[in-house]
Amino acid sequence: QVQLVESGGGLVQAGGSLRLSCAASGRTFSSYAMGWFRQAPGKEREFVAQIWSAGALYYADSVKGRFTISRDNAKNTVNLQMNNLKPEDTAVYYCAAGTQSIWSYWGQGTQVTVSS
Length: 116
Description:
Helices cover 0% and strands 56% of the residues. It is an all-beta fold. The strands form 2 sheets. Strands 2, 4, 5, 6, 9, 10 and 11 form a 7-stranded mixed sheet that branches. Strand 9 and strand 10 form a beta hairpin.
C-alpha cells in the first residue's frame, strides 16, 4: 500500500545538523501517521518522532528540543531535521507509516553517524 524511501543520512560531527527525508508512494498518504525510528548497533529499534495526519507531534525525550518532524502531504514526504547531534544519535534511521497506532510500513533505513 505504501512504499517509503529514506535519504539524507551521513557522517557529521557532534553539534552538527542533518536533515532526513522520506519519500512515500501509494494511495492515501495524507491519511497515515508518519514516524521516525532508529536502531543503533546491538540495540533494539526505538521510537524517535511521529506526526499524525492532522499535524499533531510527539517526540522521544532524548530528542526533544533538537529534532523536528514535519510533513508535506502535497509532495508525499516527511522530514526529520536533526540539530545539535550527539554521538548517541548514531543509528540507522527508519521512516514508518501507519494507522491506528500500528506501524505497518517501513523504509529501508539511512545511516546517521555522529563523530565525537
